[in-house]
Amino acid sequence: MTGGVPEVLRTLARSARRPVVLTGAGMSAESGVPTFRDAQTGLWERFDAASLASPDAWNTDPAVVWAWYQWRAGLVRRAQPNAGHRALAEWGERTDLRIVTQNVDDLHERAGSVVAAHLHGSLFEPRCSVCGTPAGPIEPLTEPVERLDPPPCARCGGPIRPGAVWFGEPMPTGPLDVAFDCARTCDLMLVIGTSGVVHPAAGLPVLARESGATVVEINPDPTGISHAVDHVWRTTAGIGLPALLTD
Ligand code: OAD
């Protein structure tokens, strides 16, 4: 170990030519953005985040879903990238790093990274639920409210929906193709802060390994893909990444 970093991981990070990082909600946890599977707090504690992120929830009560997403958008606006986001951005300046994220926040970008693929869309790209027209910027909520009517589309009047991909919806093919290409062509994949249960993202580490890459999980807790990776490091993104990637 060097400063708490397993030596094997330091060597892998230093020698990687085509690294890929796959991030999930845990990447942003230390920025104060709650993960999906952690308990929600305050107004939203009796709602299950995974259920809110679904077409069923939207069809049943769009005002609840819209209020929840606009509150998350406000929370992300006020959040700052953490030391893990910053370490990845600096690594990206020295290497051919590609970032694939399941996160709908923009904290990688605000730390200075270019994200190769946002698999689950973005909090900041709402669009019409009927005609698909992009809605343009919408001011997020600063205080949580339980219901908020989605604004009407300027083109057809349909309700504006969040720009996130929901459970059961097809993933945008562009980002998905990029993500598969990243997995097939990387030599090292770091899997950070994801529970590894939502497909197809959860299949990317397996594809990377089958394609010859070394796969490392960085997560404080065991996950659905811990058994399928080469190395596991039980630490957080904000502590582990700066230690691993700062020479
Ligand atoms: P989850 O909420 O399922 O999992 C978060 C993971 O982050 C867990 O494995 C935690 O152990 C880990 N974690 C927590 N704090 C951490 C920290 N400080 N550093 C590193 N890891 C930490 O989030 P995702 O796996 O991203 O999809 O969830 C996948 C998808 O399911 C989301 O994109 C979203 C969700 O429902 C859709 O909305 C379609």
Mean pLDDT rating: 94
* Number of helices, counting only DSSP H or I runs of 4 residues or more: 9
Shape from CA axes? Answer: globular
Strand order of the largest sheet: 3-2-1-6-7-8
Number of self-contained structural domains: 2
List low-pLDDT spans. none
Note the quaternary state here: single chain
**Helix-and-strand structural type:** alpha/beta
Please report the distance between the alpha carbons of the first and last residues. 14 Å
Helix content: 25-40%
So what's the CATH class of the largest domain? Answer: Alpha Beta
Ligand inventory? 2'-O-acetyl adenosine-5-diphosphoribose
Plain-language structure description:
This protein is of the alpha/beta class and 247 residues long. It folds into two domains: 1-32 and 81-121 and 170-247, Rossmann fold (3-Layer(aba) Sandwich), CATH 3.40.50; 34-78 and 127-161, no CATH class. The protein contains nine helices and eight strands. Strands 3-2-1-6-7-8 form a six-stranded parallel sheet, sandwiched between helices. The chain has a two-stranded antiparallel ribbon with strand order 4-5. β6, α8 (204-210) and β7 form a beta-alpha-beta unit. α5 packs parallel to α9 and α7 (173-185) packs parallel to α8. The radius of gyration is 18 Å and the shape is globular. The model has no long low-confidence stretch (mean pLDDT 94). Bound molecules: 2'-O-acetyl adenosine-5-diphosphoribose (OAD). The site of 2'-O-acetyl adenosine-5-diphosphoribose has 28 residues, from α9. The site of 2'-O-acetyl adenosine-5-diphosphoribose (OAD) has 28 residues, from α9.
